[in-house]
Amino acid sequence: MATVECQVARSAAVHTLVDLLEQRKTRRFGCGMELPAGPLRYRSALPPVPLSQEEVRLLLFAGVGETGRHLADMQYTRRPGCEDGQGMAIMNFQGRTTPSACAANTTKLFLTDDEGVYFAAAVTHPDSGVPPTLIPLQHGRLEIPRELPYMLSFNQWYTNRPGTLYILPVTEVARVYLNLLLVLLSEEYGYFIVDSDHGNSGCGLDAFRKSRGGHLHDDAATNRVMTLRELDAAIAETAIQEQGLVCQNLFLMTQALGLGGGIQSVGSGRHLLGIEPHIFPGLGFSFSRSHVAGTRSNPLGLANIWEGPCPPFVSSMEEAVLNLVASKFGPDGIYTDPSTRPWVSPEGRTRIVPHDQRAIDAVLHFCNYVYKTYGRFPAHTDAFKTVIAFQAHHLDVGFYEKFYSNESVPQTHRDHFSVWHQGHFADDARMTSLHEEVHP
Q: Which of 120, 257, 343, 365 has the greatest number of CB atoms lying within 10 Å of its CB?
C-alpha cells in the first residue's frame, strides 16, 4: 500500500502536469516586439531580453536531452511460424526526452539567437554539470528573409526577432529509411516495392520475388506490395513526426519557466537548410544535384558535423547499408557486446539474431536501383528535412493586460523576471510605465 508521502508526491506530479497542459498556449508577443496593424496593434516599450544560459539549457534538455539507456523492451526472437520479431530494428540504446522511431534519435536541434547559430551535438541532464555541446556555425543571428516562401506571412511580425531563441529541429530521414528497409525487406515482413514512375518495375528486387522463388510478396493480393512513392511518404512521415514531439516538450518547458513562444511552420524548409545560399545561407547543408533531369537536389548533411548516409559522404549506397548493419552487429555494434544492453538478467545476455543476409542483399539491390534511377536517395523525399520550428522569448505582459483577461497570462509568466532575472528590471513599476508607451 502506498505511503501518504508517495500519494502526496504522485498527486503533486499529476497536478503539475495537468496545470502545464491546461495553461499551454502560444503567447507570441515578446519584449521589444511590435504588432504593427489590426485590432491588436501594439508596440512594446521594453527592450528585447535574451534568454539566459540556464533557460536555454533547460529547453534543449526538454527537446533532445539524454536520459540514460532506454529499456529496449522488444521481442528479438521470432517464434516459428509467426511474424512477431524484428526487435533489432532498435538502432541504439541511448534514451532521450523525446521518443524516436527505432530509437534512431535522428532529429537534432539547431538554434539561433542574437549571438550566433549553433548545432546542439549533445545535451546532458541539467544537473550533470556538463554544459550542452554546441557547435557554432556562424556569428550573429540567422537572418531569414521576411517574405514568402522563406517565412510565412502571419509569422513575420514576431519570428526570429532580437532577444528570441529560434530552434529548428532537423531530421535525418535517410538513416531511418535504411534501417526500416532491413525490416520491410526481411523474410518476416516480405514487402515488395514497385516503381510506379517507371512502369511498376521491381525497384531492383525482381530476384527476390516469391513468384521466382524469393522471399518478397509480389502478389498484390497479400497487401504487401507498395509503390516507391508510398514507401517514401510513409517513412518520411514516420521519421519527421519526432519534430512535433520535440516541439511539444519545448512548449511544456517554456510554460514551466514562464516564457512565451510556440510552434510554427517554417515556410520553406529546404531554404532553411541552405538550398539557395545566394538568397540566404540557411544552415549550410550540402545539396547534391541529380544527374536525372527533373529530379530535385537532395540535402545530404553538414560536412564534418552531421553527414548523412549518402554519396559523397559515403562512397556508395552499398557502403551506407553495410555501415548501418555494422553499427548494430559489427565488432563494435550495439548488439555485439551484451554489456551494452540495458537488461541486467543473465537471459538478457543471450545472442540476438542479426538481420538475415537475404534482407541485407535485398536492401542493397533496392538502394542501388534508387540511386542509379534517380541520382539520389531517397527518391521522392529528402535525406534531411525540417518542417516546423519553435521559438522561445520573454513575454511583454503589458500586451496581454491591454487586450486579454488576467487569466491569459499565468502567474508563472508574471513572476518570471523576479524568479529568473532578479535585478534585470529595477521594479515592476518601471515595467508597468513602459507598457503604457504604445500605439493608440
A: 257
**DSSP line for 386-430:** --EEEEEE-B-HHHHHHHS-GGGS-HHHHTHHHHHSTTSSS-HHH
Q: The whole model's pTM is what?
A: 0.93
Give the pLDDT confidence of 251-268 residue by residue, as tens digits: 999 999 999 999 999 999
Integer Cα distance of 331 and 416 in angstroms? 51
Cα–Cα nearest to 125, from 58, 52, 55, 69: 58
DSSP H/E element including 263: strand 260-265
pLDDT at site 440: 34
Alpha carbon of residue 319 to chain centroid: 25
Are 439 and 37 within 8 A, CB to CB? Answer: no
Sort 23 into a burial class: Cβ within 10 Å, 0-12 / 13-18 / 19+: middle
Query: Distance between CA 348 and CA 368 in Å, rounded?
Result: 36
